[in-house]
What does this fold into?
Amino acid sequence: MSTEMSMGGTVADGPRGTDPADGLLAALRAAVGPAHLLVDAGARAAYETDWTGRFAGTALAVVRPAGTDEVVAVLRACAAHATPVVPRGGGTGLVGGAVPLGGEVVLSLERLDHVGPVDVAGGSVVVGAGATLAAVDRSAADHGLAVGVDLASRDSATIGGMVATDAGGVRVIAHGPMRRQVLGLEAVLADGSVLRRIPGLAKDGTGYALPELLAGSEGTLAVVTAVHLRLVPRPVATTVLLLGCADVADALGRVAAARRAGTVLAAELVRDRGVRMVHQHAGVPLPLPEPLPPLLLLLELDGDPDRAGRADALAALVGDRPAAIAADVADARRLWAVRERHTEAVQRLGTPTKLDVTVPPAAMAEVLAEVDRIAPDAVVFGHIGDASLHVNLLDAPPGLDEQVLRLVAAHGGSIAAEHGIGVAKAHLVHLTRDDADVAAMRAVKRALDPTGLLNPGKVLPPDPPGS
Ligand code: MLT
Ligand code: ZN
It folds into this structure.
């Protein structure tokens, strides 16, 4: 199937009854209701780009179904008219995974936003794919629980999108990425059949683990419509501190020391120039006096700061390094802003090429030094707790992104830690997945979506010539 079948997306504006797309639009209108079929360019625009603005395309139309049955009807209509579908969550993606390439139908899950009752005894909740992380977390908080994944875009990022991209964020060190939070899910396959794997039993060895397969598949295998999420105990009190570190080895050593001292909820890395950038472009106060140390490690530790022995443990963790230790919640938020507002500050400087990579901890210092050599203007920060780095390239010459990713691959890392592959890196998957891996992925795609209806051009490298 080619995305050129309904290329351009302006057919919807043409005279009624003369255009082949009219039949599809009529079917979609019947499926979701006229108010939730967007064909007008102005109405579509917000659904046609990623958060950075680096990726944008034109859709034939946007549909906003209200429930699983409507998703089924949309997929059946699109299949009947050989028009591909791009599933879309909260629009916070950074690699163009939920952006049309030209002429697809964008399927927004935003109206599937129900949050079910929290199962307090079992520590879980069933939610619609369109529920935002913040909404689900609020509901969990009422019962002393939390979603195990947290990230800065929590107010817009949706659970379905986070599962589809296997989102990471700042709590991976404590609870793992999004796929580890998935107990079960409901998803619609390309042929309109519905996989209902919601129960999420603690043990279920009956064959292939389909929820795990769909987590991280970026809408290329099925459309996730509901998720049974594991919840984790909500920390009652935490200690947040920012620690100046001399180099990567020092920072990694402090993370290891913090782990030995107790539960580490987050271990994040920023650099002096990034902190100055956030100060200058997002108005966040400098957390330490100048001259800033080259690396700053933000740690969030579980446990009451006033607990006996805590002060001594913190003093030992800090040693003689410069440090800011949050005295209260407002202070903690200020320290977190130094890290979380990097994304926004980078964006104010231009449209970045955002690379999210994981490297083996032992290779991190070397990779960082090499990135500095080949991309001296890159803004680098990340989740040192799970050895992932965000390399933000501004005004990058062509090929620099690939150079950085090749470097990561050469050190045994991953070129897609938590943002997904999307359209940005589909052609580079082979850097860290060998031929057998890619062939297996293609076979799964063909089995579940033989006509290529779902999110074409994303995740998998283009088909080899002659296939
Ligand atoms: C983050 O860690 O802040 C997010 O992954 C977003 C980003 O990389 O800018
Ligand atoms: Zn991140």
User: Anything to note?
Assistant: The mean pLDDT is 94. The pocket of D-malate (ligand 1) is lined by residues 152, 343, 354, 356, 390 (CB under 6 Å). The chain has 15 helices and 16 strands. The CA atoms of residues 92 and 253 lie 33 Å apart.
